[in-house]
């Protein structure tokens, strides 16, 4: 569905440019944007490689396991439908940890694996389970301790202080995560109350 929206937007933009006689400007913007995207990607690769390497060191040194043990009781409270020994919990914890380190690209595969495990747990149904909704809310809100990708972008564009956003990012993502959890709990308990009153 999303690809259809992007194609429609692209087609509408081209048609509008042709009608207004600005096709040359659009072509120039496309090539300039493509060039900037390549430069930006190379800038991001170095930072991503560094932080992925750090995550690998953290995993091999046992630091990641400490994070997992630290957050396991919280995750079990947030996902009471998942058995304590289920593999989905490991993927969820890895997803949350990667998001906290600002590694959204590294968090995505873990989130997808967690969703697949949750779907199996939900009997293979296509509708989202309560745990899937909670994971989606947490993943979208994404508490971030180190906004790695944003720091890399700021460094790439010669920011004088690329790390000055760490405090505000932490505050903003903490607020969004808290809001996501509260909203998720509100709808969960509302559903329980509604089902109990029948």
TrEMBL record:
InterPro entries: Gate_dom. The keyword Transmembrane helix applies. The chain crosses the membrane at residues 37-55, 91-112, 133-153, 165-188. Residues 42-151 form the Nucleoside transporter/FeoB GTPase Gate domain. It holds the Pfam family Gate. Keywords: Membrane, Transmembrane, Transmembrane helix. It comes from the Bacteria. This is Nucleoside recognition domain-containing protein.
């Amino acid at each position: 569905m999303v690809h259809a929206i992007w194609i429609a937007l692209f087609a509408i933009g081209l048609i509008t440019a042709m009608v207004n006689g600005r096709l040359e400007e659009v072509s120039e913007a496309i090539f300039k944007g493509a060039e900037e995207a390549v430069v930006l990607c190379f800038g991001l690769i170095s930072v991503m490689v560094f932080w992925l390497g750090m995550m690998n060191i953290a995993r091999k040194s046992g630091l990641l396991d400490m994070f997992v043990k630290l957050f396991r009781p919280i995750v079990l409270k947030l996902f009471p439908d998942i058995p304590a020994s289920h593999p989905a919990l490991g993927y969820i914890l890895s997803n949350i940890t990667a998001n906290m380190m600002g590694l959204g690209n590294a968090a995505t595969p873990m989130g997808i694996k967690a969703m697949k495990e949750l779907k199996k747990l939900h009997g293979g149904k296509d509708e989202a389970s309560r745990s899937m909704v909670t994971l989606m809310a947490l993943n979208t809100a994404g508490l971030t301790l180190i906004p790695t990708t944003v720091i890399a972008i700021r460094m790439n564009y010669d920011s004088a202080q690329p790390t000055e956003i760490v405090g505000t990012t932490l505050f903003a993502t903490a607020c969004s995560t808290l809001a996501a959890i509260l909203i998720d709990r509100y709808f969960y308990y509302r559903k329980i109350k509604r089902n109990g009153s029948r």
